[in-house]
Amino acid sequence: MEGSEVQSLTTASHQMNLLNVNTSNADEEEEISLNSAQEAETCSQAKDELQLDENSPSVLKGTEDTVLTFDATIPNGNEQPSLLVTNCPTEPSPAEDSSSAESPSSSSVHSTSKNSPTDSTTTSGISNGPSTPISDTFSSSLASSPQTSAKNLFPSNSSASPYDTDCSRKLISQIQRSLSQESLLDELESELLACHSPVNGLPTDQEGCMVVFEKCVQYKYAQQEKAIQKLLEENKRHQELILGICSEKDKMRDELKRRTETEKQRFATITKLEAKVNELLKELKESRDKLVHQEQSAKAALQQMQKETGYRIEQVNKKCDEARQEKETMVMKYVRGEKEALDLRRDKESLEKKLREATKEVDRQALRGNQLAQEKGRLQQLYEAKEGEVGRLTRDVDKLKEEINSHLIKVKWAQNKLKSEADAHKETKDKLRETTSKLAQAKEETEQIRKNCQDMIRTYQESEELRSNELDAKLKETKGELEKHKQEQTDQLELHRVKAKELEDLKRSYKEAMDELDTLRTKLKCLEDERPRWEDELTKYREIINRQKTEIGRQREKLEEVTALQEQHQCDEQEIKSLRDEVDGLTNQMADLHRDVQGSREREAELLGFTEKLSSKNAQLQSESNALQSQLDQLTNNFTELQGKLEETNRLLEDKQLKQEEALRRQEVQSLQEERAALQTEVAQLKTRVEELRDELVTQKRKQAANIKDLTKQLTQARKRLEQVENGGCERDASSMGSRSSSSGSLNARHGGSSGVEERSPESQSGPSVVVVDSFPEVDKAVLVERIVRLQKALARKQEKIEFMEDHIKQLVEEIRKKTKIIQSYVLREETGALSSEASDINKAHLSRRGGIMASLYTSHPADSGLTLDLSLEINRKLQAVLEDTLLKNITLKVRRTPAGFIAPEYSS
Q1: DSSP 779
Q2: How many Å apart are CA 49 and CA 186, to the nearest integer?
Q3: Which of 632, 668, 769, 814 has the most CB atoms at less than 10 Å from its CB?
Q4: How far apart are CA 292 and CA 294, in angstroms?
Q5: What is this structure's pTM?
Q6: Where is the composition biased (Low complexity) (predicted)?
Q7: Interatomic CA distance for residues 900 and 30, integer angstroms
Q8: pLDDT tens, 519-536?
Q9: Nearest-CA neighbor of 458 among 713, 678, 779, 773?
Q10: Residue 326 is inside which H or E element, if any?
Q11: Could you tell me if 538 and 463 are in contact, meaning their C-beta atoms sit under 8 angstroms apart?
């Protein structure tokens, strides 16, 4: 016995060294042969189930006892607990030999060869019972065709359901593995309970060694339970993070709804303003038509005046000729009577004195005319200064238009940049298409929508898509962690399979884990059910964005129409100014004509004085000239007063307009500053939130990766030690267990294959999850928010400018209306004789008392016998012409006297 124990120790140490060398290459080979190992595992599971059915009697008839001793030391990071296997051969009874000969158990060695020719590792398990040809052929057939058996065991269900993704397939495969491992554990448990024999042939008197083994296993089990609890806590944290992200998503949806409502309100106000602008344009057209009609009537009146003046000049020339003839006759009469000549001389001297006085008065009137011309020049200078101010204001308007154009260019630049970013994102989405076949259609729809979308809100939609992808990635990570938990639980069950007493506790824990798995599956189903709803909501948001884009295009067209209307309005104003200038020129021409008429009248008066020296006509002419001079004085005084009032009113209007513009611009600046501050605070808060969430995710990922690495290292170390000990025991007893070595490989291959796959599964699952997370390029949300804020500010500025221009247009239209109403009401209101003063009435009474032609005009009966029908008609025509001239002067003076924007209470109706 002692010699056999020494040999077993030496062989165990030799095989431990060999296994350490082989396991260093096994890690590299595992990465190369993931697919082949999974297929071999499925085949080995099916084969082992058949072998266990055949090996059940051989387990009962085992004739070999092994003593297992473990060191009670706690393993460090790199140290492994030592395992000693001693085989004590015993002689079987003849009954057992016969039973074994009659019903031999079939178990075969199944070795998984790696792809590399140089490095190869073989994992073998121990099973009780000799090998048979049937089992050998069965195992060889399964080993030769692993791919066909894997295909038959797991048929492809790629198009079975809409949720058949890579992650769901991995979950289903792991669930099937866990179920197959459960069945194996149940079978082993039933065999152990039926056998009631010690593990590995251990005798009942050596149960003290098992106590140490149980303590080691319990210690490892406690450590793994702690790690499982930590992972469960981290899973809860992940779920809380997912809930927080969902709440943030809901908040963002509420903000979207609010913004859409505000935009609808803005659209309603814009439509109202457009209706008002149309009404104002109609009124402008009506006022233009009225002005054209008035201009035509004024031109017709001017032509009539010109004709009448020409006719009067011809009559005056005729009268001059007649007066000369009468003068010659008077000279002949003068010779006849000297007395009458003396009287006439005296009268002549008096008339000459009066003429000198009249010439002096004419000179005075000329001086007054010069003064009026100077005042006119001064008014023209003021008008030119105002025109300069108008030019400056137009330049400011042009500058504002240039700023608007620059803003539009910036918006187009941002749209182009967004297009480039969308093109950059297409490459990542093409990669995702290769991995997910079912999501290809949805992504194609999103690409089409992205090609159509060219506005600012598209960035917000992309951020939401990135968030949804991040949520999917987090869900995948949680699924991977759950799968890792399952694998760890199955590993623990395999490690503690030896102990029959702790099988019940492990089953309970396994059932609890399965219940948790069911809950997690239900949660997964719920999330997958909610996924189409999220996609529908995304489509709805995209439709809303498209509608908003169309509405924005309409608004831009309306803006262009408003700008065109503004340009038309400016052209109309320029036309109105030109018409006013023409009217001023015509009034000047009329004044010149009036002066000419007055000169002609004075000439007529002089001629009449020369012809009617011996009559009372000279006195009448002097009274008429005095009346006209008084009227001229009054008119000049009224004109100066009206000019002063006009200047004052213009100054007041300019001051008021400047103050109103300053107040409006200050209010605009204040509102924009407040909005800017609020948006900056919101952006800062969002940035801090995003950074905190990223930091938390990074730290949690690192913690999980570290924990998984530690657990995988510990599991691999424990498995390697067990495999080394088992291989050492098999080689030492090769002489006494020749037939059993061939059958022991099947179980060990099954254990090794499952453990290798389970060791690889965390890395293979964690790998794609990390790739999915990293494949999405993180978009800077702060840049997107800043762009949205800039565009909103530009919109607000444009709307405020539109409102200001509309108010200005309203004011101008109201002024035009008021002026037209004043002119119309003045023309309709004034009656004949209303403009005559008291002085003119006194003068008329005086003339009627003195007698003569003029007295007969102002009285109802003829006061002079020389008044004929023709002479009375001519006098009436002249008086009519004078009356029309005075009416026109009074109308122009009264219109100038009324300040701009003022309507008398008489005309307000």
Answers
A1: P
A2: 11
A3: 769
A4: 5
A5: 0.18
A6: 89-118, 139-149, 735-746
A7: 96
A8: 887 877 887 788 788 888
A9: 779
A10: helix 208-336
A11: no
